[in-house]
Hints:
It is a single chain. The chain has six helices and ten strands; from the N terminus they run αααβαβββαβββαβββ. It has 265 residues and is α/β, with parallel strands linked by helices. The chain has two domains: 60 residues, no CATH class; 183 residues, Rossmann fold (3-Layer(aba) Sandwich), CATH 3.40.50.150. The strands form two sheets. Strands 3-2-1-4-5-10-8-9 form an eight-stranded mixed beta sheet. A two-stranded antiparallel sheet has the order 6-7. Helix 5 links the parallel strand 4 and strand 5. The longest helix is centred in the first third of the chain and has 27 residues. The mean pLDDT is 89.
Amino acid sequence: xxxxRTRQVYRWVxxxxxxIVKVNVWTVVRCLANIPRYGLFLRDFVRYRxxxxxxxxxxxxxxxxxxxxxxGSWTGKGQYFYQDIWALRKVRESGVTHHVDVGSRIDGxxxxxxxxxxxxxxxxxxxxxxxxxxxxxxxxxxxxxxxDQSIESLSCLHVLEHIGLGRYGDAxxxxxxREGARELxxxxxxxxxxxxxxxxxxxxxxxxxxxxxxxxxxxxxFQGLHLEEFSAxxxxxxxxxxxxxxxxxxxxxSCGLFHFTRRxx
Length: 265
């Protein structure tokens, strides 16, 4: 309990100060730890230069990476990492040739998905990007530019929780997430799939970043659809395939991955 409370306090201080100073305690610790590592870098540089006769290494080309030897220095972890792989696998296995994504990370899932099939990306903000099989369409999740039940394959990853908090220039709207869910439900075609990633656990608003929802609330948001799969990423960044809804009711900072479908009549 004490360690959990300490982490919560640390995260709160970091959230509040980061927009101003853009420096956190972990960054400072890493910088200090890298001071002695510079000695190792220089030792290796001298040794390598003595071994290499053909290569010319100029001082201006030195490019020290000092902490990549450490365990866990890779970036393959975290909610976005697991979420994007989960959704990409879903789209690939579905065999669709066209997919619509609403507001997800264009430098993550959306761009990567365009390597699987043609993707239409809808976002409130103007995006100037050219990629094969990726088209961009300006639009608002509260008023999606599609007919009723017209989209066969649809995703919205770590987006719905932001709607109505003004973080991205959208209008203030306490019902923004619920109304966005209603629009996603409206446009999903019979037999179609919706892939949703969203913060879950103890319900609250972390203004103006995002909201957290109980799994019951999410099911209520999409009560016209059928839940095909629920997976999750725990508070400790552990991916759980086919998770239990009840296990995440009291989570603090987890991510729910919901695969909804609209059944054919």
